[in-house]
DNA sequence: TTTTATACTGAAAACTATTTCAGTAAGCTG
DNA sequence: CAGCTTACTGAAATAGTTTTCAGTATAAAA
């Protein structure tokens, strides 16, 4: 998936959203054409078909029957979004935020949303003494550089991700659980990939 | 201004909003008619004219050219809010959600927002073994009836609120902390006021 | 180099939606 | 009780929209 949308189609999607926000209803095909200087409704329709095929809009064959999907809203308005994507599994290889990895969107405060963050469901009890329980949602900042004692999401030797305290050494990294029945582990720098620093937590109680 | 809108018109406005929320675009006059069993488009149009005259909608004479105004949107946002109020202190006397008590608004998922919930900053370590730490935000459902072992916000004898496990007895209530260095307390029913059941938790890490 | 995707033109058919015209009937208001 | 509002019916004119058909041109991928 090199480039999901052409510049033209991104522009059309953006105008679609703007129009809905401003007027309260979507534009017609002809109105889109007028705005973009496309004389034939068919020219516009091609773009709409393309946008629909890629899941950015949904159409019903009625007047102004265009709906913006969540995918589009999140993609275009990442900087203004008030949600972060919930990733299903953090594993080696594919980029974390690949579309097929994203299972939901989690509402967060604006300052979190504008960082490059994602959410992750915690599995296991390794951080229980830090108040992080099995099933909790961890909000993770991808861009922040981890510092000593930060809670990080780490990929160890291409395995699936774990959440641990981060203790850097001169030539190695110690990943320390917050659970006295588990032991800290030490790794060479090339064995560990830090996928982000935990900045927030959400829990559904019961 | 006794009654701005008739029941019929309120229903039509509500459906208008619902339709836009669901489908992404307003219904046509004929669709409104079909939904409300009005055979003639003119019958529906009368209502739309009335709604427009009173400032609830704006119309452009194009297909689905209906916009919900802010006046009506107050309605819309009540049902689809995505925040709950953060209350400064929960104390006896004034209602929890009195305006002067509200210090902020916290983003939550839609299903939480539509319950009658509020957020509260936890003070102290009394629930630390339940993974609830000093400074965490607790999202509290006001309407849910507490059951045994629920985490509740309780007002004891007109003091300020505490967060505890709820264990009802036949003629008394036990409020049990999740901290083995603290002791459970037992109160008469008239000494305790339950202000809600914890349904979610949010934490800013560091 | 053939195929595929992008990005359109132009026109007409088919359909959808609003507006207008002409009424009816019940209930409330002064 | 006349006048106004609410709440409609029914039909036709008019306007707005989508869909279909038949192409063109360019660039990128197989």
What is the makeup of the main sheet of chain A?
9 strands, mixed
Chain pair forming the biggest interface: A-B, 36 and 36 residues
Overall, the morphology of chain A is: elongated
CATH architecture name of the largest domain in chain A: Ribbon
Q: What is the CATH T-level topology of the largest domain in chain A?
A: Umud Fragment, subunit A
**Mean of residue pLDDT of chain A?**
81
The secondary structure category of chain A is alpha+beta
Assembly type of the shown chains?
homodimer
Low-confidence stretches of chain A: 75-81
How many runs of DSSP E, i.e. beta strands of chain A? 11
Could you name the CATH homologous superfamily of the largest domain in chain A? Umud Fragment, subunit A
Number of helices of chain A: 5
Distance between the termini of chain A: 39 Å
H/E series of chain A, N to C?
Answer: HHHEEHEEHEEEEEEE
- Fraction of residues in helix of chain A: 10-25%
Could you characterize the architecture of this molecule?
The structure is a homodimer of 206-residue chains. With 206 residues, chain A is an alpha+beta fold. The first copy, chain A, has two domains: 7-76, Orthogonal Bundle (Arc Repressor Mutant, subunit A); 83-202, Ribbon (Umud Fragment, subunit A), CATH 2.10.109.10. The first copy, chain A, is 24% helix and 31% strand. Chain A is built from five helices and eleven strands, in the order H-H-H-E-E-H-E-E-H-E-E-E-E-E-E-E. Chain A has helices spanning 7-23, 29-36, 41-53, 70-76, 110-113; strands spanning 57-59, 66-68, 83-87, 102-107, 117-121, 137-141, 151-156, 161-168, 172-176, 185-188, 192-204. Chain A has a nine-stranded mixed β-sheet. A two-stranded antiparallel sheet of chain A has the order 1-2. In chain A, helix 1 packs across helix 3 and helix 2 packs across helix 3 (41-53). Chain A is elongated, with a radius of gyration of 22 Å. The first copy, chain A, starts with 6 loop residues before the first helix and ends with a strand. The model of chain A is unreliable at 75-81 (pLDDT under 50). Chain A binds chain B through residues 20, 23-26, 28, 58, 60, 62-68, 82, 106-109, 128, 131-133, 136, 150-151, 198-206, and chain B through 20, 23-26, 28, 58, 60, 62-68, 82, 106-109, 128, 131-133, 136, 150-151, 198-206. Chain B binds a DNA duplex (30 and 30 nucleotides) through residues 6, 8-9, 28-31, 38-47, 50, 61-65.
